[in-house]
Design goal:
Number of helices: 7
Order of helices and strands: HHHHHHH
Structural class: mainly alpha
Shape: elongated
């Protein structure tokens, strides 16, 4: 596949994820993975497609790969935290979302952290 074709396939997969069509996005992303598997943007998109298709363990692995490749990626930490939250792993989720909120203190990240803290309080209370 040419680099132009790879970019086109990536953009198509991005569009499909945005439309909440993760299974189609995973198919569209396959040729990109064959060429650029170790690019953080590719792994992030792969993780989002897995997350939206409820393949939480695969999403977790993709987001961990992004963080391995780029430890400063606050969004990868946020979605990893959300993925861990969906698996009921609230302590781990809190640590990732807290780090994301520290790295990028925007309201959405703070709200995600508050939601996890509230769930932990209910569970432990």
């Amino acid at each position: 596949m040419s680099s132009e074709g790879t970019v086109e396939a990536f953009r198509r997969a991005e569009s499909l994820v945005a439309q909440r069509r993760p299974w189609e996005a995973l198919r569209a992303l396959q040729p990109v993975l064959d060429i650029a598997e170790d690019k953080p943007s590719v792994q992030l998109l792969l993780g989002r497609a897995y997350l939206f298709s409820a393949q939480f363990r695969r999403a977790e692995l993709a987001f961990l790969r992004v963080i391995e490749l780029d430890p400063s990626d606050h969004y990868a930490r946020l979605v990893l935290g959300r993925t861990l939250q969906r698996q009921g792993r609230l302590q781990e989720a809190r640590s990732q979302v807290k780090m994301a909120a520290t790295m990028n203190p925007v309201p959405a990240y703070q709200e995600a952290l508050g939601e996890i803290n509230a769930r932990l309080a209910r569970r432990d209370g």
